[in-house]
Amino acid sequence: MTDELPVHVNRDGRRELDVPDTVEVTDSFDVRFVNHGEATHVHLNTDDSLSRAVTVDAGNRHVPGSGERRVRIDVDTGGLERDAAYGTLELSTGYGAEQRVIDVEVRDPEAAQTTVDVDERLAEPPSGGAGLFDRPELVVLGLAMAAATLATLTAAVVDETVVVVGVSVVVGAVLVALGFLLRRG
User: Fold this and answer.
1) Which among 50, 109, 165, 171 could disulfide-bond with 26, CB atoms 3.0 to 4.6 Å apart, if both were Cys?
2) DSSP 86-152
């Protein structure tokens, strides 16, 4: 939401207007013309759909050279249909030689409320005992024990030297991992 709509005049060239593409408002606001060059007149106009909710203070304004000028845009959200009004604000300089159009959305301030009330109970940690997945080291311990048991059973069934060496490596790795796990915990 905006309280002020900046419009830069003569920044990129004579009678050039630099404006945002869109603006969303919930209340009256100022169009702030910032002139970067010679004095000029800027004309403001709203389309029919926007004019139901918006009133321009003065349509044709003189903006002094290298100076600023504010134009008040009054917003009346009382008569909005479906909590919003959409339309365009047209700005022009040089008797219409340069024109820019800004899409404007006027929203009801109550419908545009973006805060959420949070219950104080959400700040407290949940009560209850720790579950299995609250301590991931227990899951790792269970998987390590299963791997060591499966490897030992495989070595007992298949009586080959290569299998016994492989099982020894697996069991050794499990023991080293358990050592790190117990040291950390």
Assistant:
1) 109
2) EEEEEEEETTTTEEEEEEEEEE-TTTT-------GGGGSPPPS---GGGSHHHHHHHHHHHHHHHHH
The Cα–Cα gap between 77 and 55 comes to 11
SS3 at position 66: coil
pLDDT in tens, 14-61: 889 999 999 998 889 999 999 999 999 999 999 998 888 888 877 788
C-alpha span between 169 and 160 (Å, rounded): 14
Q: 78: which DSSP letter?
A: T
Domain that holds residue 139: 131-184
Q: Global pTM?
A: 0.57
User: Does residue 144 share a domain with residue 92?
Assistant: no
Tell me: do 154 and 82 sit in the same domain.
Answer: no
Residues 139, 98 share a domain = no
Is 100 inside a domain boundary?
yes
Most distant CA atoms of the chain, gap in Å: 99
